[in-house]
Write a structure and sequence with these properties.
Length: 495
């Protein structure tokens, strides 16, 4: 949920200065030695033909926050239950050899030594996060200072009044580049925001969705490269379905296909709708969510998806396991999936590419990469944390966030994701497009009116969306009013 801004570009420049060591770690070759470039000095005359090193203007904790002595305090994170994709990237040890975790360790070590404090983490050990957190906060438990959780858990916990409004915490500057501005926008209700994310973490990006494709199947059918479609602004729903139809090979027994044009999860229709920018909800000028689904454009998108998908034997919709089996066995041209599979597919013999989820048409300005609220990790401050403890914890979180610009962010984005995990050179650019377009919708976290299910069932089963959502929209509107009321009654810091 981070864009390649001027700040990010500066971070990339720093990453390139450290390239020898970092690339050795990513590729598992070389001796890990680093090469340090000379520091630029305006008073030194540069010999003719030589270029000066650009001044590094990337913000750091010291340049933004200055010096501070936290007097050997401990700041503890209470973290979500981890499995699979969603693993902790807050803490690391000096023995870690993974590029990302090495960067996390460098960040944490520098901050601990600079500000005289210790970081700690307690993992919840349970998938039932909100009930456990509610019990801890209600009892005034002070064993933790910051909560690190999924957006689904955060949304439920915020509605229960467990977090402070981030706008009331002076140490947190949500408008800064190290916080995700797209998330700030989509996670605000009534100008209140209880959770946020940014450069402090990379876990959320692994659940961003793109479209994987099998290059050999595309070439065998003399299809245009999806990469070229992206370059030419022709990567649209129509183009994807056109190519999928051309690549489909019906099975001999007529019960499916031996090669599917698309193999996707049951949520395919909903994911594709979101990729067109037609979200379930949008906030109005008063920052209050309103149901967006059902407008003319969203109905046109769903109708197209339904017409192309329902009853089409060239499109398989099923479980994640079956989808991955088809793709690994070279039985599908396209597989819409999360970026995590950049890692899982590295051990396959497939020649794979990846592009963003398609636009509705060429008039659509941007790509949107929907990711589920369960997949995105965020942080908040429990209302059991007050006074000096809260100020200290917020200072540390802000320091970790800004310091990540020179450590975690370049290691993850510019080295690991776009170099180590990218299946080819062209994928580096398309992965960036996917990450730039990341979007979540609180309507999905709160399941207002069950509208997500209505959309995906309409596409899969060929149901009329207008009819199926008529009652659900009214239920959703009532649910939104309740959510807004619950958010507004959460006590303000210092009240």
């Amino acid at each position: 949920m981070k864009k390649l801004s001027l700040v990010r570009a500066a971070a990339l420049a720093l990453a390139l200065i450290l390239a020898c060591g970092i690339f050795a770690s990513c590729s598992n070759n070389g001796n890990g030695a680093t090469t340090t470039a000379p520091v630029a000095n305006s008073d030194v005359t540069t010999p003719a033909g030589e270029e000066t090193q650009p001044e590094d203007t990337t913000p750091t904790a010291l340049s933004v926050l200055g010096e501070k002595d936290l007097e050997k305090a401990t700041v503890t994170f209470y973290s979500r239950y981890y499995n699979g994709i969603w693993r902790s990237d807050l803490m690391a040890t000096e023995d870690d050899t993974d590029t990302l975790m090495m960067a996390v360790y460098r960040r944490n070590k520098f901050l601990e030594e600079t500000y005289n404090f210790t970081l700690d983490e307690i993992q919840s050990g349970t998938a039932s996060f909100k009930p456990a957190l509610e019990k801890l906060v209600s009892t005034g438990d002070q064993s933790f200072d910051v909560v690190y959780m999924s957006v689904t858990d955060a949304a439920e916990s915020a509605q229960a009044g467990l977090f402070w409004d981030l706008h009331d915490i002076s140490q947190i500057d949500l408008e800064s580049s190290w916080w995700s501005q797209s998330c700030n926008k989509s996670w605000s209700i009534g100008h209140r925001q209880f959770f946020a994310i940014g450069d402090i973490s990379t876990v959320d990006n692994m659940s961003a969705r793109g479209v994987f494709f099998n290059k050999k199947i595309a070439e065998a059918n003399q299809l245009e490269s999806p990469y070229d479609c992206v370059k030419n602004n022709t990567w649209t729903l129509d183009k994807m379905f056109e190519m999928a139809t051309a690549a489909t090979i019906p099975s001999l027994d007529g019960t499916g296909s031996s090669v599917y044009g698309i193999s996707a999860q049951n949520s395919f229709g909903f994911i594709m709708l979101m990729s067109t920018g037609e979200f379930i909800s949008r906030n109005n000028e008063d920052d209050i969510p309103e149901i967006n689904i059902g407008n003319e454009r969203s109905l046109a998108v769903v109708d197209k998806l339904m017409t192309k998908t329902a009853g089409n034997e060239g499109i398989f919709l099923g479980s994640d396991k079956d989808v991955m089996t088809h793709f690994r066995n070279a039985e599908a041209l396209f597989m819409p999936e999360v970026l995590y599979h950049l890692i899982t597919l590295r051990d396959s013999d497939l020649d794979v590419g990846i592009v963003p989820s398609p636009k509705y048409d060429s008039e659509q300005e941007s790509y949107y990469s929907f990711t589920t609220c369960y997949g995105v990790t965020c942080l908040g401050f429990p209302q059991s944390n007050t006074g000096d403890r809260l100020e200290r914890a917020a200072f540390v979180v802000e320091a970790m966030s800004v310091q990540s610009l020179t450590t975690v962010t370049p290691a993850y984005f510019d080295v690991c994701i776009k170099t180590r995990f990218a299946p080819d050179i062209e994928a580096s650019g398309t992965i960036q497009l996917i990450l730039d377009g990341l979007y979540t919708d609180l309507a999905e976290a709160y399941k207002w009116g069950g509208l997500r299910d209505k959309v995906q069932n309409a596409v899969k089963e060929g149901q009329n969306l207008t009819t199926s959502i008529a009652t659900s929209k009214k239920i959703a509107e009532t649910a939104i009013k309740l959510t807004v009321a619950n958010w507004q009654k959460v006590p303000k810091l210092g009240a």
